[in-house]
Design brief:
The protein is mainly α and about 290 residues long. The protein has one domain (about 15-280). It is about 70% helix and about 5% strand. It is built from 12 helices and 2 strands. It has a two-stranded antiparallel ribbon with strand order 1-2. The chain is globular and about 65 Å long.
């Protein structure tokens, strides 16, 4: 091989999949070595330990009445919080930090596609978040086996799958806001407010004041995680009438069906991941 041939081999730019793999690998290693991973892992373990102690000490009859009640109480009430924190920790500033910390000035000029950077970071965040969710699920199952043996309801398997799909969607949502702003603080703050409080407040206003189904809400679609752990599955629409003062008040509540919930999550993921990538592709490092 001549010196010219050797130079040409060295100058060959890796393909998109190779770039994606390298970005995913090293971003994931950065996550594993970062303080945020261990902080989130600590929060994950604290929630699990507190639930273990509370249920083990007080032995609530409604929680321990059946294996389905146990998994519904444990997983249905806390898993969405763990998922949202994972999205905020790993995706809240994944792209905006490239602008704020000026790291993009060193990566973007290189012959590497921005799509490889974006999707590689997203995949790394997904792997790290899946580890956190997996640890929480393992502790949940461990407690369930202690109380009910290997009698694990099939609904928990469905809830676990829906939880992972929700995690995928949340990360797409967080990456979109991270691409929208060049400030890490702004992107993290907005995603935290929307995912922890905003959508829930919007759901309440839409249902109680506007009196329509909040089919466009991310948290409404994620309701299938807890609903699938109920037997029977909650009705799509429930109307109750109660006396308030001298008059009657009618309250209406909605529950997304499983196909509807999966459709909402899927649409949110596709739209946000595409918009986030388009924003990152067209945003200048100035």
């Amino acid at each position: 091989m001549t010196e010219q041939d050797t130079t040409q081999v060295k100058n060959v730019v890796p393909g998109s999949f190779a770039q994606l793999g390298v970005t995913t690998k090293y971003t994931f290693l950065d996550y594993l070595r970062s303080r945020r991973f261990f902080v989130l892992l600590g929060i994950d373990l604290i929630i699990s330990v507190l639930l273990t102690i509370v249920i083990g000490y007080y032995r609530p009859a409604d929680v321990l009445s059946s294996s389905l009640s146990f998994y519904s109480s444990w997983w249905g009430l806390s898993t969405t919080f763990v998922i949202v924190l994972s999205g905020i920790f790993f995706g809240g500033d994944a792209i905006s930090s490239e602008f704020q910390n000026k790291t993009g000035y060193f990566t973007v000029p290189n012959p590497i596609r921005r799509s490889s950077i974006y999707l590689g970071k997203w995949l790394a965040a997904l792997i790290a978040s899946t580890i956190i969710l997996g640890i929480f699920a393992a502790i949940t199952i461990g407690n369930g086996v202690y109380y009910f043996g290997l009698s694990i309801p099939y609904q928990f398997g469905e809830a676990l799958l829906f939880s992972w799909i929700y995690l995928v969607t949340v990360l797409g949502f967080c990456f979109f806001f991270s691409s929208l702003f060049k400030s890490s603080t702004t992107s993290i703050l907005l995603t935290a407010i929307l995912l922890l409080f905003g959508f829930t407040l919007i759901d309440a206003v839409i249902v109680n004041i506007v009196k329509i189904e909040p089919w466009f809400s991310l948290t409404y679609g994620a309701g299938i995680i807890s609903n699938v752990l109920s037997s029977p599955y909650p009705p799509h629409k429930t109307t109750t009438t109660s006396r308030f003062g001298r008059g009657l008040t009618t309250l209406t509540s909605y529950n997304a069906t499983v196909p509807e919930g999966l459709l909402i999550l899927g649409v949110y993921f596709i739209v946000t991941i595409i918009l986030g990538l388009v924003l990152f592709e067209n945003k200048d490092f100035t």
